[in-house]
Amino acid sequence: MSFFENTRKPVGLGGKIMVAMMNVGHSAVARWGLQFLELAPDAKVLDCGCGGGANMKRLLKKCPQGIVKGIDYSPVSVEKSKKVNEAAIAEGRCAVLRASVAELPFKSEQFDAVTAFETVYFWPDLPQCFREVYLVLKPAGTFLICNESNGDSDKDEKWTEIIGGMTIYKDIELKAYLEQAGFYEVQIHKKKSWLCITARK
Ligand SMILES: C[S@@+](CC[C@H](N)C(=O)[O-])C[C@H]1O[C@@H](n2cnc3c(N)ncnc32)[C@H](O)[C@@H]1O
User: Fold this and answer.
1) Ligand 1 close to Cβ of residue 6 (< 6 A)
2) What pLDDT, on a 0 to 100 scale, did the predictor assign at position 155?
3) Among 56, 89, 168, 195, which is least packed by CB within 10 angstroms?
4) What is the DSSP letter of 118?
């Protein structure tokens, strides 16, 4: 297994190194993407595929009276996210669960926003996963997708060759899947090779 397979599902020591690297390496694209997410100070947010938890920490800052939950199917990611957000967990403002986006362990209409940073590349059956996100969002809630690779660059092929099970979607493909799941007001933002999409329930 190549070290980069740990981006799809971090495992073992390589996975621990990868989640620490991603917390730093994804910082610029995540900060850029987060500016497109409007949140009330007491918002309830879910971060899907939370990896090392750095974006959960940013979300907690963005909604200082709110609650941020994270899910990831990798135990390595869950452990790191818990460590990074231990103070907020102790305050009762944060929780991290091991779960797949294909079957979210939440009741419907719970969250004001759901985020997905650098992770939809790996989701199985994207329309089904987007429907799961749709279900857990409150009416008028926002789904934000933020990717470092927008499918327009020659470099994209390099990544999909190195990392099995990775698909780099173009903006119009994601927009179509989102609308198929019931989302509307799909807004597309691009900078360099980055892509950020927001959609409303
Ligand atoms: C490239 S990492 C990105 C982590 C973090 N969001 C960030 O931006 O640094 C992708 C993460 O998504 C998780 N992931 C991939 N597919 C998933 C799925 N179907 N359900 C839950 N987590 C998933 C992986 O375990 C991994 O932690």
Assistant:
1) no
2) 82
3) 89
4) S
